Amino acid sequence: MTTAADIAELVRLPAALSVPGDALTGAVAAGRLGWPTAALAASSCCLYWAGMALNDYADRELDAVERPERPIPSGRVSPTTALGIASGLTLAGIGLASVAGRRAVAVAVPLAGAVWVYDLLAKPTALGPAVMASTRTLDVLLGGSAAPRRALPAALALGAHTASVTVLSRGEVHGSSPTVARAALATTAGVASAVVASNLRGGGRRRGLSRLASVALAGSYAATVGRAQVAAVRTPDAPTVRRATGTGIRGMVPLQAALVAGGGAVAAAAGLMAAVPALRAAAKGISPT
Question: For 79-92, what is each residue's pLDDT tens digit?
Fold first, then answer.
């Protein structure tokens, strides 16, 4: 019998704590932070959970060999149930986006499509990381759907980070290579540098506290994620790569917070950072990957 705990493991329930920050980042960048942001954050969570369930549905035969402890190969969740959960969560995500209006739906629909394309078609191909990066980029644009052009730079920063984590994650079972780990490390450094440079270019248009907080958070992101990736460069075996991937997923939050603080919402950035300890603790019970 499938339990609530089995479903929570299937959708990587606590890992969704890394997702609401996308909507907040987009809304702050677009200058439209308000009540619709909460609905868009909930929409993002539903689509994230849908992607996790669909991932395990698509990988069920491979997981039977490589990760037999997962809910589907272990027999705790049937493939039909997993597909139904993914479908229901996808519809819920689009429905929640509709609360914010037509512009949000116009982003939520292709975002949902990208999630399904990644899991069912693109994941094992060379295009997989690019498609995965597009989902995170679109997720930020969902939050900033009221003014997507203003939200685009922040969306691209999170998309680049996602691409590097996805490429590195391909070595979670059999290990990776120093070259791949170095590329991920270089991307982390590049994204952090771009955030810092954006703050320096802001000049007098940004308050000193916002600029300082953003730079500090960008440094925290680079140090935390970069340290794990340096370890993967030195020893690119499966356990080290798995740890670096998990750190990269949790690293979404300080990156989001840096972008939010740079937009002037320092209190909101501090609120995002409160999720980091919860993410770290939750990962001990349910793997985010």
Answer: 999 999 999 999 99
